[in-house]
Amino acid sequence: MSAYGADAASGTIALEADDGHRFELITRVPGNPVRTLLWLPALGVAARHYVPLAEALAARGTAVFLHEWRGHGSSRLRAGRDCDWGYRELLLSDLAASEAAVDAALPGLPRIAGGHSLGGQLAACRIGLSPATYAGLWLAGSGAPYWRAFPLRERLWLPLAYRLLPWLAERAGSLPGRRIGFGGNEARGVMRDWAATATSGHYRARGVGDLEPGMARRDVAIRAALFERDWFAPRGSLDHLLSKFPSARTREVRDFDAAALGVRADHFAWMAAPEAVADWFSR
To answer: Could you tell me if residue 141 is inside a domain?
Structure first.
């Protein structure tokens, strides 16, 4: 039993964004939390898949709120030819609603934003945009998709993929990610905004503008978990994302191999065995 209680209170919070989008936050709250964490999933991954991480962190004193991406899990929307959105809706509407819910549930505690893969990137962007004061940014298997930040082998074909995926989404009405093995059923606007960063190395989105000036001003403490066999987010990709925070108070990175995790050290396997990552974030 931890100092925070054997079991965290489990629940969900029903939310509605300013444009009418309805979704739910999954919560795991210990008896005496020392901080809150708003956690953002990877592209195409429903929030429920991070419950093991939330429970591991709650046992270590963090109140965790698992955000749901528009179009997945509890979201009432699904991307299609007649239903589209981009980073603007994710950053300004949905994340603002989740932030307000966290603040209402546990006001006054230090606030952390974090995420896995694309979730880590958009947590970083939201920290730059948000009027809320975040104490830290936690990243797991996350890094900028900029093609020049990858090893040479990937740099030979990534530019083509970054053009093909938005094109496919436009043709099909949404990206058929489950069918091609990348993400889920993703909105066209999300793929356009993602590909713009992937090709330019810069975070800029339609309807939001340049996201990097706000990121550069934030003095957050950053902690990142890097996985040995994660070709989606290698060290160069993470370093490129961290470079957007020149004013960061601290930047700590830990490399995890299979021995440290107890499972394969790739982009997704750690989610089922998150104890070592939870220890790293919580120390």
So the answer is: yes
